[in-house]
Amino acid sequence: MAPLPIVRTVADLRAQVGAWRRAGETVALVPTMGALHAGHMALVEQGRRMADHVVASVFVNPTQFAPHEDFDRYPRDESGDAAKLAQHGCGLLYAPSVAEMYPEGFATAISVGGPAEGLCGAFRPQMFGGVALVVTKLFLQALPDVALFGDKDYQQLQVIRRFTRDLDIPVRVEGVPTVREADGLALSSRNAYLSADERARAPELHRALSGAAAELAAGMAAGAVLEQVKARIAAAGFRSIDYVELRDADTLAPVERVERPARLLAAAWMGKARLIDNVPVVRG
Predict the structure, then answer these.
(1) In this structure, is residue 183 part of a structural domain?
(2) Is residue 39 a contact partner of residue 46, using CB atoms and an 8 Å limit?
(3) If you count Cβ atoms within 10 Å of the first and of the last residue's Cβ in the chain, which end, N or C, has fewer?
């Protein structure tokens, strides 16, 4: 298998994408922070179904991390990532440096509201502004027809959809269903932080959300159901719960009862790993 071509500058990225464009071919973009797993490969595979070529970016974005967070220890494995991408038919890896993305004198920020408010936005207030900034730059650098993001990061997906519409960026934003381990744990690069014992207990987050979703879909009010979820995951050994909330699936506005498609979302700490998950809730 031929090695995956890697470009590290905007100019080289645009040169390759421009050549595909001149040939009348379409491009899908899969933005990632690396440490790739089967969930990322699902994005690549969906991109291949939707476009002639897939570009994956690997960039651990410093603007979405607070000083106390895990930017420095976030798992990195470019050679392993490139091999996985090549195996799944990715056409190009874009791996810019921090200096390429944020050159000396960089002075621009993006402020986002709406779906960025609450949930992870309350606990990581710097995150979605940083996400909006880097994804906007990636969109303008690659000019893809479609960009693929996972449903696991559902709030992030809705934030990206919102600012893409608000800024009239001509990119189709496509969500891809969460890929899970056999026991239900959502795949995440941060699962590497879990000890063996923590890994065994972590799937209770998804099990608790799935059980609650069935009750909410049957018409139960959110209050008592959400408290039951918190009690269940606390009993499983999650040391801290950031939130368990029921939100409108489109706007992410809080809802008490499910009248239209909703999403049940949670974030909780198992050891050193902050795990997030969500499940759809549709009235039965």
Answers:
(1) no
(2) no
(3) N
The span from the CA of 169 to the CA of 165, in Å, is 7
Q: What is the mean pLDDT of residues 196-204?
A: 98
Number of domains in the chain: 2
- Asked whether residue 140 is assigned to any structural domain, the reply reads yes
For 152-185, how does the pLDDT look when each residue is reduced to its tens digit (9 = 90+)?
999 999 999 999 999 999 999 999 999 999 999 9
Quote the domain boundaries for residue 81.
6-176
Of the pLDDT bands very low, low, confident and very high (cuts 50, 70, 90), residue 231 is: very high
d(CA 38, CA 156): 19
Among this protein's residues, is 40 annotated catalytic?
yes
Give CA–CA dist 219/213, Å, rounded. 10
Model confidence at 2: pLDDT above 90: no
Classify residue 55: in a domain, yes or no. Answer: yes
pLDDT averaged over every residue in the chain: 97
Strand order across the 262-270 sheet: 240-248, 262-270, 273-281
Distance of CA 120 to the CA centre of its chain: 12
Q: β-pairing, 262-270 with 146-150?
A: unpaired
CATH number at residue 28: 3.40.50.620
Cut 0.70: pTM above it? yes
Find out whether 108 and 133 touch, Cβ atoms under 8 Å.
yes
Q: Which of 108, 142, 176 is the last residue of a domain?
A: 176
Catalytic hit among 40, 53, 88, 206: 40
